[in-house]
Amino acid sequence: MNAKRYLSTLMMLIITAALLLAACAPAIPPTPVKVMSDPVTVVQTFYELFNANQLDQAMALTAPDYVMNDPFGTYDRSAAAAQWKAVRDSGITFNQTNFVDTGNGRVTSCYEDLQDNKSVDKGCGNVTHVQNGKIIYDGLEAAEQIWVVQKYYEAMNAGQFEKMATFMADDIVVTFPGGKISGKQEVITANQDTIGAGLTFELSDLKNTNGRVTSCFNVLQKGTQIDQGCTGVTIVRRGQIIFDGLAPDEPEYVVQRYYQALNAKDVDLAMSFVASDALFINPTGTYQSADAIRESLAGLNKDGITFDLSNLRDTDGRVVYDYKVLQGGNLLDQGTNGLTIVKDGQVVFDGTEDTFVAR
What we know:
Helix content is about 35%, strand content about 45%. The protein is an alpha+beta fold.
């Protein structure tokens, strides 16, 4: 046999055998491609890289205006890089679980801090904000709420209204001396007009209690102060501003928002407006303490009870109103003496004027 022909035939047999073996071999699944536009994936990847001690790669997932908060303080991007390195050098890693994207790039998670593989802390109050595939905030919810207020006003003063809108709830309410604006687009338009007229706002002395951020403020027009005070109140829920205005306008808003949440069967949001030692008195019973009140509200939702409030009158946090109690659209009760008392942004009493006197 011709040697060249023999070698050619042999090579064809080898190639054919290789192709047959490849066809019979189990398929190797492709490595999943991480979608870095997904906020949860960005957060998970950041902590995976941190735990692997790949700090430069982790920090590459953060934006230039990134802010990090931990129990020791709040840091800008440069200081945060040094703090993360110190934390990792001390042998600490993080086991992040229960990731939930609450919308607008806001990711909540539970965490367990491990030092040399031993648990040293755990909880479920971690919040991370992601915009355009980059982390802009990472830390605890209490610090997040002040950060949200600061970023909202920072974006407003800079005329960055699209960015400002990311910190606003769709049903945001803004009050000011002599007026009130409701709804995200309406507030955006009003702020555009305000900044266009040369007004800017400076906030200071921000203090947060359960998402109620109080502040002092200066209002400037083209650099000249035209108003100031220390009655600013901004209410933040789930990473977005739902109320921004003055303390005297807050009680009426809290009553309305509490009942809106209750009617929407959002017990968690409704309870965020209730003081831990609040007293509720209604035809189904008397309830004191957050646990008892939460259980009663769940029962109202289960029974399809809703409330229609009108003609609200506020006197120093004592809000009186007309009310209707409905079940499936049927009127069960009504009156003109509904009473909810609000103190420091939280409901401390809910009932009627009569039950308040008789309590």
